[in-house]
Amino acid sequence: MTDAGELRRRTQELLAAHPPATTDRLDFLRARFDAGLAWVHYPEGLGGLGAPRSLQAVVDEELAAAGAPDNDPRRIGIGLGMAAPTVLRYGTDEQQARFLRPLWTGEEVWCQLFSEPGAGSDLAALGTRAVRDGEDWVVDGQKVWTSSAHLARWAILIARTDPDAPKHAGITYFICDMTDPGVEVRPLRQITGEAEFNEVFLTGVRIPDSHRLGEVGDGWRVAQTTLMNERVSIGGMRLPREGGMIGPVAKTWRERPELRSHDLHQRLLKLWVEAEVSRLTAERLRQQLNAGQPGYEGSGMKLAFARLNQEISGLEVELRGEEGLLYDDWTMRRPELVDFTGRDAGYRYLRSKGNSIEGGTSEVLLNIVAERVLGLPAEPRTDKDVPWKDLAR
Q1: Scanning 69, 81, 113, 320, which has the fewest C-beta atoms within 10 Å of its C-beta?
Q2: What does the pLDDT read at residue 92?
């Protein structure tokens, strides 16, 4: 059993062999992965040591104290939070060996090809087709709201392989090379002025069967692992006290007493407490996770994340008065990451509107929490056993 003392010893050995001050950043990250100190709860040989997830903090603290570089997790969040646990759970030995190391070091960025123009909240209604052709699958369709598609080398993709089966049963899960012929990425300019999202058109894209995750027709079950991890990574991210959206508001309140009012004070106190409760709940949720298989409680955390962000950013705009109506820059750009705290109040207010859509709409997540966490009766569904090809569209 690997304990905290053993992890500290291994971390110090890594630092001695690869001093951060004189070692190339990428070389250090590769060495850290090979030493099993990337994500300690992963198996040996895949960046981990099979240790408890909670011991990752021991490694992170030692490396931070030594000034070691990290893998810029915000830039590669889709790979770390969604693709990696799915590859770990359903990937073959060859797939795990090929994809996990460059994913973790950030050498290869990942995106998610799930949502479609006609299949967003009802994702299982997706219409992108994958047809078997020898050892390949030929994929045609359109995906939308794809974060980081303009940066990504790889994508996790679900496509319909059996239109005669009910919609949940005829889906298969693939890994798509975003550099292949037939993959076209177009920017989607958002209300913030920038385009972190994209739409992706797939025209005759050939994906080898060796890049399939899970069994043919079992893609919906594989996708549930991705979706549950996505909601945990969005709603259950590790933050310090006053981290996230509540931080800039609290800072403004302390530094600008002329903006204060009794009503704003009461609202800020309420949201501060809720943000802290959410932060501590997320910490408890992370401690309960088993590698690669979170529970449906992550849906509740993602719900709370969206609501709090929108309420806090609205309060911040109101607190700043006329200043809150200003906006720093409407320039069209395609950013590498979403930076809620690095921009002004107007950006936070506009960008948070998407929080109740991305990672599962709040309406869908309310159903998930009601049915799978609280055990309430499911909504009647008349399309569960109908072949996909016969559904009204």
Answers
A1: 69
A2: 97
Task: Please report the pLDDT score of residue 296 as a whole number.
Answer: 67
- d(C-alpha 243, C-alpha 336), whole Å: 21
- Write the DSSP symbol of residue 161: S
Query: What single DSSP character describes residue 343?
Result: S
pTM above 0.85, yes or no: yes
CA–CA dist 338, 352 (Å, integer): 11
Model pLDDT for residues 148-189, shown as the tens digit of each residue: 999 999 999 999 999 999 999 999 999 999 999 999 999 999
Amino acid at 1: M
Are residues 84 and 100 in contact, defined by beta-carbon separation less than 8 angstroms? yes
Q: Of all helices (H) and strands (E), which one includes residue 93?
A: helix 93-105
* Contact present, 348 and 280 (Cβ < 8 Å): no
230 is catalytic: yes
Looking at the chain, the whole-number percentage of residues with pLDDT higher than 70 is 95
- 319-341 pLDDT, tens digit per residue, is 999 998 888 888 899 988 877 77
* Residue entry with tokens 């991705």: 226
Distance CA 279, CA 177 (A): 36
pLDDT in tens, 204-235: 999 999 999 999 999 999 999 898 877 666 65
Asked if 84 contacts 77 with a C-beta cutoff of 8 angstroms, the reply is no
DSSP annotation of 290 reads: B
8 Å CB contact between 331 and 296: no
What is the biggest distance separating any 2 CA atoms in the chain, rounded to whole angstroms? Answer: 71
Give the distance from CA 367 to its chain's centroid.
Answer: 20
Amino acid found at 255: E
Burial group, residue 255, by CB count within 10 angstroms (0-12, 13-18, 19+): exposed
Distance, in Å, from the CA atom of 231 to the CA atom of 327, rounded to the nearest integer, reads 29
Given the residues 116, 194, 196, 230, select the one marked as catalytic: 230
Mean pLDDT of the chain: 91
Backbone angles phi, psi at 191, to 5 degrees: -60, -20
